[in-house]
Amino acid sequence: MSSDPSFQRFMLFGRRAEGAAGRPAGRDARIDMVRGLALLIIFINHMPGNVVSAYMPNNFGFSDAADVFVLLAGVSATLAYGGLIETRGFAVAALKLGARLWTLYIAHMAVFILVCGVIAVAVTRTQNPLYIEAINIQPFFRDTVDALIGALTLTYQPSYLDILPLYIVLLALFPPIYYGVRFSPALTLACSLLVWQAALAFELNLPNSGGVWFFNPFAWQVIFTLGVILGRTVQLGIAAPRLRWLDALAVAFLLFAWLVKIPAGNPTGIAALNDWFDSVQLGSDKTNLAWSRLLHLGALTWLAISWLPASGRLTRSALGRALACSGRNSLHVFCVGIVLAVTGQIVLAETSFALDVQLLLCAGGITMLTGLGIFLSWYRSITSREQRAGPAAASGAPVQRPSFSPR
Amino acid sequence: MQPFRPLIPAARRALQETGRLIIVALGSSTTAGSGASAEDKSYPFVLQSELRRRLPGAEVRVLNKGVGGQSAYDMLRRMDNDVIDEKPSVVIWQTVINDAIRDIGEDKLAKILRKGIAKARAAGIDTILMDLPWLPREGRYPHFDEYRAVLARTAEQQGVSLFPRYAMMRGWARSKQFTEQELVGMDGLHLVDAGYRCLASRLADGIVAAVGDVPIQIIGRPASLGE
């Protein structure tokens, strides 16, 4: 695909071209910034029916914030745990990863309980049973024992509580994927695509009460794997080759997606395409991933790598830095975002979706989430300064902070 | 309110030829049994007992394929596995409530409903659509009426029956046969058993009225053993 020998060498053998000096991998502010943005978009989209959500990217293309989020999760996991594997060895990295998985699991449980509580209060206070329906929390109220066991084993996931379980599974799969990418990115990607297509053919997915996981891990590991490959290029300091034709192709694909999503129905009038138009307009397959989603995400990623400068004006602007703060504290921001969004759904309904309330909720939520990110970054900066002043100031090279940053 | 008399020729045919009536209840919380005190208080379960009682000699099964929180599109996507593979003669599709809550777009909803009905029809399955529930405070969802209208219009255009749940519930509320909480409320979490029982009875009334005159072919075994 690429005419750049060093990039080709990387894709095939996972190594830099001999003699080619990679630049040391500094923290890439773009990753945090884009992840912060994705978190805010997820928050807005989790209050369906609000006017702002009609302007979110999923209305103009095939992929959405979830795809970006999983991709960047792969990138950050590589920078954090891949970096640890390289500097400290597998055992230390595996312990760190285990601790991280545990934190994610506990965070998921906490959000689950909080959301159940919010809904229970809302339903008993307002006598509107539809709040139960809105996030499929009814198994918890009908058969609490069953639901509790299901929640603990990740086999009962109410709506919106399905992303963290996916992330837990993907992160647990990180070591094999990382070693695979270290050996050969191209081969690993081929295996990953094969697993996805096999899962589609054999209808493989993990069980969820009354169905299957909303985010099929057998499918979504493809995006995570892409993220790991991307992270590996950052880790090795391999620059993506400049390919104007690919830029043009990516832009063309994004335009194509936009043109297909906007109209209602099939504007081409070709009857054979009716079903395809319906399938992308009614909703690209999110559970099992769709090629259209993957290509769309690929196009976006390529353009971001090529055209969004690592230390450009955007990433250094106040907005960019605020978003990056949210992105750096993504687990906290994500969890709080879920609880806020579910609460927001109830407020929206109780106020009959009044426009001013909708706008206020969106603005307020975004402010709170960004503020939380900034606060946590500040909090970490003052606590780490104390650490440095203390006697145990022994520090090696600072390790990249992992995605859903651990303690 | 007109009596509910669904058009279910496939069910008539199946009863006549095999003595079997298989119904899939496809839906979200109402079907799954949100608020019911137990699994056997959900409407599909009660419907099954009612139909077995009223159609002696027939082998009746009502399969509950309700998943809370699902939109019409979510259900369209599981139609192959959850409906068509079960080879029923009737599907009772309870939907649109989550689409109304999320305001997914009326045209989009109509298209999804049409696709679902067409899919069932192509498999030789009769569809009964279930109207939205009556809510004590509809103002919470400003487009509730519009989405209800889409449902009614699509049912009419496609020539499928619409079970008048909304009118029925409103009637109950007005007649004071039930308190509001018994119908839709949830102060203690299990208050809607009565509502589900009535829903199922009225559905059974309609289905029996539509197929009751069919001479039922008893195959092999006495009906009382049922299933």
Features:
heterodimer, A: 407 residues, mainly alpha, two-stranded antiparallel sheet, 2 strands, globular, B: 227 residues, alpha/beta, Rossmann fold, 5-stranded parallel sheet
In short:
The complex is a heterodimer of chains A (407) and B (227). Chain A has 407 residues and is mostly helical. Helix content of chain A is 68%, strand content 1%.
Task: List strands and helices in order, with pairings.
The complex is a heterodimer of chains A (407) and B (227).
Chain A: H1 5-13, H2 29-45, H3 65-88, H4 90-126, H5 130-134, H6 138-142, H7 144-152, H8 163-172, H9 174-183, H10 185-201, E1 207-208, E2 211-212, H11 217-236, H12 244-261, H13 274-282, H14 291-307, H15 313-316, H16 318-328, H17 330-350, H18 355-389
Antiparallel strand pairs in A: 1-2
Chain B: H1 9-18, E1 20-27, H2 29-32, H3 43-54, E2 59-66, H4 72-77, H5 79-82, E3 90-94, H6 97-102, H7 106-122, E4 126-130, H8 144-158, E5 161-163, H9 165-175, H10 180-183, H11 193-211
Parallel strand pairs in B: 1-2, 1-3, 3-4, 4-5
Helix pairs in contact in B: 3-11, 7-8
Number of helices of chain A: 18
Secondary structural class of chain B: alpha/beta
**From N to C, what is the helix and strand string of chain A?**
HHHHHHHHHHEEHHHHHHHH
Low-confidence stretches of chain B: 186-191, 220-227
Quickly count the domains of chain B: 1
Please estimate the helix content of chain A: 55-70%
Q: Fraction of residues of chain B in helices?
A: 40-55%
The average pLDDT value of chain A, as a whole number, equals 87
